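Open question from group meeting: does this chain pack into something compact, or does most of it stay loose? Before anyone orders reagents, we agreed to write out a predicted structure and look at it together. Recording both the input and the output here so the notebook holds the full record.
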Amino acid sequence: MNVKTLKLDSYEIIIGAGILGRLKTFCAGKNYSSTFILTDKTLYKLYAGALKKVLPSARFIVIPSGEKHKNLKTLENIWKTLFKYGADRKSVLINFGGGVIGDMGGFAAGVYMRGMDFIQVPTTLLAQVDASVGGKTAVDLNGAKNIIGAFIRPSMVLIDVTTLNTLPRRQLRAGWAEILKHGLIKDKKYFERAESMSLTDLIYKSCQIKANFVKIDEREKGPRKTLNLGHTVGHAVETLSFKTKNPLLHGEAVALGIIVESRLSVLNETLTEKEFQEIRAVFAKRGFALKCKNIKKKDILKLILKDKKNYGKKIKWTLLNSIGSAIYDAECAPQNISAAVDEIL
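Structure tokens returned:
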């Protein structure tokens, strides 16, 4: 069995096929007082039986599926359930699901009784290569992404690639936005050759790139900001899409954000037009839509001003120097920002 392990300061990321059974061994070794599994209704139907075999005494907390439920109301319900069934500081919460489950469950556990252990078990490609690594936890507020949250380390990240077998094609494609982003900001060869890699190696490489940024800058004061490529515009587009008939997945919105911020890099004279066209062609080949529908330019420009990475009224961008190299905290002229947004309209 091809199993790979990445070690961060206080936890491990274990990647491979068919390794959900390690949950039992890990939990037994920690001697937890009780075990809770947070998941959504869709995943509960698919995996409840398998999880009960591994952890028969665990109690499930099942929430509705989707980003629209990543809010304070759902968070309160998680806390109430933990309290109702006697969770204490020696309990553990296993977050079994995509980025919504991981982000929200991590925050719920990290502040419940001032902190209980949690294990991330990401089941989407997007969460496996990005959201589960680095200790970011959060919920949305008033439609804005990840406004309430904290950096809280998990006890373990367990990535079983077989969970991707039940993932819809659209969700798989969405994960590729973060994979390609990792190549764009750090490794040109990875960007160009990712498609030929095995699934385990692909996830390992992306986790390795992100983990290296986390090791040197866990609290995102400096180099970790490089990972935000595509997210300033991506978060705005994603939020606005929730008001349309066709809401975007996070990865789809990030792909659009990367296109805009790559164009902005050209306008800021850090990236060549040739490289931009190469980036655009790769995203098109992966099946991403490169235009967004029913979203107005003025609304995008208004929402990026509220991005949590900004300082005061200054928008701080991650831009590309070239494919495989990026800069952070860049400032751009308003006319260039406006022109770059036109790329996806």
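Observations to bring back to the group:
Residues 52 and 245 are 37 Å apart (CA to CA).
The longest strand covers residues 144-151.
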